[in-house]
Amino acid sequence: MNDEDTPDAEDGEEDFDREAEPQQKAGADIGLSGFMKSAGQTAAWFNSIDKQFEPIRRQIRMAESTRRSIVDAMGPANAAYQAALDAQLRYQAIAAPVQALQSDLSNIYDWHSRINDVVRSVSLPRTLLDQLAAAAALFLPANLSGLGTEDLYTILALGEDDGLSLAWAPRTEIVKALLPLSTRAERYAFLAELRDDVLDDIEDSLQIVTHPELTGMVAILSAATRTARADFSEGAQALAGNVLETAMKRHGNAWIRRSFPQATYTRGGHHWVIDSALDDAGDWGELTLLQFKHYLVLAGMRNAFGPGATQDTFNRHLGAHQASPDTYRPEFVLPALLLAQALLRALNQNLEHPGDEGTGA
Fold it and tell me: How do residues 222-250 score in pLDDT, each as one tens digit?
């Protein structure tokens, strides 16, 4: 039986997908243009313009900060530095006509879109992977800082093959010790031996997730870690699976589409959206610098939301719709918890926080 084939297979997630997508306000450009023409000479208009420019100025400051960080880490004579410098120059070129106030106010939205395109256009060919590893603090979760090129290849493979997410947790030492192991059974057993340390790292990571729309899920996932410590593995896996489902319905599908806008999304179910993004990326060495971290989280999610009647890795859908001792296994608990933690961390970075201006980082 494959619940994915039924109209309600993913608990109404397509409705949630539509709610999660950013909505364009009908007639917004016309209203703003009319406002500009009727009140263009007033002080209030200039104050409004200044607020519209702030996301652009902030993007320029972020580009400059990224460039300086790369220089500090590796010196100016490297390809990553050149890519960041190129992005900064292109930002400034885009911002110049905006700051000159030589176009209609409605075009500001087009400029903002072009700025996001510039960020995504800084490519990551394979020859830059060593620079990425050297500047990991800029583009990778902190626990993966200092890992080499081959380690990054292996981590992505573990995400696709084992459904393991190693982003932000566990700690670097555990990740390094996990990578040389040759089989999935060995890796799962190794994590089980260090269960309490891994759970500590998950709980520490969740302290960073502070967005108001995520804190309720943080509370449930924290309860899942406590349940795992008490050796109630089925309960821990169920809670982690529910957090993943809720996070995907509320924010995950929209996050994937924003992170990988080049992909073609033809269907709305979770696994269809995940597959579209991963398959479009194809050779992950062609990802942009800013997309790499998102891909790292997403790689572990294909198995968790994949269709099918059986699976040898954690699968949220099977746990929800075909509960049995086969779909609830002790070795699935930590992979489920790690994956839910990684998704919440990624969403926390991506969502706009109260008080922020513009889009979330």
Answer: 999 999 999 999 999 999 999 999 999 99
Distance CA 93, CA 235 (A): 54
In this structure, what token pair is assigned to residue 187? 């890796």
**Strand partners of residue 288:** 123
Indicate the burial class of 341 (C-beta count within 10 angstroms; 0-12, 13-18, 19 or more).
buried
pLDDT digits (tens, 9 = 90+) for 133-191: 555 555 789 899 878 888 988 998 899 899 999 999 999 999 999 999 999 999 999 99
Contacts of residue 173, Cβ cutoff 8 Å, sequence gap at least 6: none
Contact 300, 165 (CB under 8 A): yes
d(CA 273, CA 276): 5
Element (H, E) at 174: helix 172-178
CB 98 within 8 A of CB 56: yes
Cβ atoms within 10 A of the Cβ of 175, count? 21
Instruction: Say whether pTM exceeds 0.70.
Output: no
Which tokens in the block code for residue 171? Answer: 């700690």
What number is the average pLDDT over the span 117-139? 54
How many C-alpha atoms does 293 have within 13 Å on its Cβ side?
27
Cα–Cα distance measured from residue 12 to residue 195, given in angstroms and rounded to the nearest whole number: 34
* Distance, CA of 341 to CA of 347 (rounded, Å): 10
**Taking the CA of residue 241 as centre, how many other CA atoms within 13 Å lie in the half-sphere pointing to its CB?**
25
